[in-house]
Amino acid sequence: MNTPRYGMVVDTRTCVGCAACVIACKTENDLPEGYERNWIFTETAGAYPDLGLTIRSERCNHCEDAPCVSVCPTGASHYGPGGTVQVDADKCTGCKACIAACPYGARFVDPRTNTVDKCTFCIHRVENGIPTTACQDVCPTGSIHFGDLNEPRSDVSRLLATREAYTLLPDAGTKPKHFFLK
Amino acid sequence: MRRRDFIRIGSAGVGAAALFGAYRSARIGAYAHPVPDPGTDGDQVVPSFCELCFWKCGILAHVKDGRVTKIQGNPADPLSRGRLCPRGAGGTGLLYDPDRLRHPLLRRDKRGAQQFEQVSWDAALNEVAANFDRIRARHGAEALALFSHGYGGSWFRHLFKAYGSPNIAAPSYAQCRGPRDVGFSLTFGTGVGSPEVTDIANARCLVLIGNHLGENMHNTQVQEFAEALRQDVDLIVVDPRFSVAASKARHWLPINPGADLALLLAWMHVIVGEGLHDREYVAAHGHGFDQLRAHVAPLTPEWAHPRTGIEPALIRRTARLIAGARPASLVHPGRHVTWYGNDTQRSRAIAILNGLLGSWGRRGGLFIPAQTEVLPYPDPAHPGTGTAIDRPAPSQYPLADDVLAQGICEASVPLTVGDPKIHGWMVYGSNLPTTLPNPPQTYRALQELDFVVTVDVLPMEITGWSDVVLPEATYLERHDDLNTPPWREPYVALRQPAVPPLFDTKPGWWIARELGLKLGLQSHFPWTDAESYLRERVRLTGLDWERLQREGVIRGPAQPIYFEEGATPEFATPSGKVEFYSSQLAALGFDPMPTFHDGEVEDPPAGYYRLLTGRAPTHTFGRTTNNRLLSEVFDENAVWVNGAVAAKWRLKDGDRVYLRNQDAVRSTFSAPVKVTERIHPDAVYLVHGYGHRAKGLTFARGRGIDDAELITRYKVDPIMGGTGMNVNFVTFLRADDVEAEDAAAGAGGHA
Description:
The complex is a heterodimer of chains A (about 180) and B (about 750).
Chain A: E1 6-11, H1 20-28, E2 39-47, E3 50-58, H2 67-71, E4 77-79, E5 85-87, H3 97-101, E6 108-110, E7 115-117, H4 123-126, H5 134-138, E8 144-148, H6 155-162, E9 165-166, E10 178-181
Parallel strand pairs in A: 1-10
Antiparallel strand pairs in A: 1-8, 2-3, 4-5, 6-7, 9-10
Chain B: H1 3-9, H2 14-28, E1 44-49, E2 58-64, E3 67-73, H3 86-89, H4 92-95, E4 105-107, E5 116-118, H5 121-139, E6 144-148, H6 153-163, E7 168-169, H7 171-188, E8 205-209, H8 219-230, E9 234-238, H9 244-247, E10 251-253, H10 260-273, H11 279-285, E11 286-287, H12 289-296, H13 301-308, H14 312-324, E12 329-331, H15 343-357, H16 405-410, E13 424-428, H17 432-435, H18 439-448, E14 451-456, H19 461-464, E15 468-471, E16 491-493, H20 508-518, H21 530-541, H22 545-551, E17 553-555, E18 578-579, H23 583-587, E19 609-614, H24 628-631, E20 639-641, H25 643-648, E21 656-661, E22 671-675, E23 683-687, E24 715-716, E25 723-724, E26 729-734, H26 735-744
Parallel strand pairs in B: 6-7, 6-13, 8-9, 8-12, 9-10, 11-18, 13-14, 14-15, 19-23, 20-22
Antiparallel strand pairs in B: 1-2, 2-3, 4-5, 4-15, 16-17, 19-26, 21-22, 21-26, 24-25
């Protein structure tokens, strides 16, 4: 069996930016008040009445060349199961080098532990028999897809094979495993 | 076995939890850098249905160590289908809101001063019963009125009927959906209900008239909206605001505010004129088509152009697109449609258009819902309850088929001649100062009334104006009556507590029953508790109570919901047909076919902008803006101002402003300006539900602007009494100037 390579695909055509993903992530992962692991980005283009609106549900990109991992002095930020990027809280000193290095603003310090926190791709579920993330499960528009990019029959692979997709800040050279469908 | 299977099968199973604990630790231990499980899976998973809005989605509440840790959609439920909107997912923010009402309260100072003392339930209910009996003895039971919004209101409606008052009003009628359902009833013989019978998922063309699906988050509709988008639906959105839905549309028609009816009529002109309507359907089911054809003959796209601001070519093109997809062509009826006071006629036009497309009763249009019957609990007949006192004369608003909440409010203040007719209010889950238009009138009624009692979960503004405040348990802590909505398939859903009530709060059924006993209505409350009441209804119907408790939902056999599947075309109109021409309206002196009257919708005065309002996906009006979890995403509204308007006023994005309306009413609080191209230059836009003033709402208080306080004018729909609220205009006051002026005047600031 091939090693999985987990990735996420968000369909911006159907996403309405309702933020159910943000709330469900907070309760699934018991996040502290005032902190989120995912968020909604919106951007308006044009002038009335010739307009366009982009809406994205965003989070850690679980980069293949993750600057947060390379700058981490203690090895707390590391590549975990399926190539996901994870933080080992026991090794994290809260130095924030990773926060400065992440071009996506995906990380924060959990005030309860003074260690860095971010999206885990719900790896605690995925590795334990639930193959979905909380944000994916709740999404009323079914816009969030998660799965194994190495598995050609997975939802994520099929969507990337058939639809036009992009990653954020490709020039940063981070090789995100989080994609957005146009 | 997947972990979810454990949860579903062993909803109350200690064994299952233990088993899966062992399973999990074995796997986690295999990794060098463990990512700890946040541990939010419940030891118990309780199925129920949501109350964060009124759609009633099936949920699964995870309970661990006596706390609800998270709420997921119940995959067995036909409305949530396992998914939730942000509000549903954020229900714990209500359950654990630190500002919740905790004890019964008795007023100590004048109304509105928000000075209360804690009392026992017995003392509080004795006070309510004594006042009810006193008012009934002096003025009759009909001098009492109930305002109710939310599913738990059924217990209080039962109480009021038993006590003998017909004055039971919900602001969801005349302040929201009423005109739509009257307009559709006049045309098809029945309204579209809630959840609406719109077959969005199967529509090939979908038209939204001011309906902001995606910001208005009725879960199943938004799920279907996304399905339709995935099927490349031809989406046409008519809105002066570039809504989220508009951004997904093939055609966004940025209409001049108030001109929707002109567009609808021009579309009919093109469709009928070019013979694009469903001739077979119209011949079989239509009534008055010839009159309609003559009526719309002069209403060309060129006629509509100066009124709507939409180019004639685009009107023609979209009309052909709409007709080309029929019958899977749905002109959505909308939901909050009380805009300009001519709303029944606009809703009629939408209904007529659907009739021309043959979409009523057809796949991809509006389906004929299925509903299961659950037998009632055997109960003595209610006393005769007479006519509600919600309108000056019975002949007024002749087609109102529900009680008018603002009419009850008006009947509660002394008239120029004679006494008020209503002397006491019970208010269940309705924050009337922000719900009814013209708040000064509401405050006047609240001062004049003999007695006001409120049942609520949070210390909303209305509680501050009450003599007695009864703290209700939240939906996660109580049973409510069974839900059997007309929908795609028949089903029954159960609301049951996930955790016991916190503090000294009580479920609505308990409050209503105890009050009933004190009012001598024992015979109307023959059951001892809601569980035994529900169990008996389920048993009488022949359903499995344990299964309902375990699964939350029992679905019935599928029934045909389209004519082509065998649903019977029946129209409960006077002609028994789809009424393009309404003799009923003609006989009452109204336009028998919708007519656009120039000048009916007033233009903004110079320097003022039409106040338009809507919703944020994370909130249900002011009911949820104190929810810390939901407000993390959206904690304050902003005043949407078009870029050109902002430039004229030298307003920058983020500048704080107060709004002042045409009647010189100024908002209590300020809000930031959102400079955006997404709003028509003649209008500003606010999300409804912000700017709470109640001291007890420690999070929401003072955040943003309450649109309701600026809606001092409303235009009443002469057909059914709906209150059109998009007839107010506002201008900007810089927050710095206002606050400096207030300080100079010694007002001590704006708060």
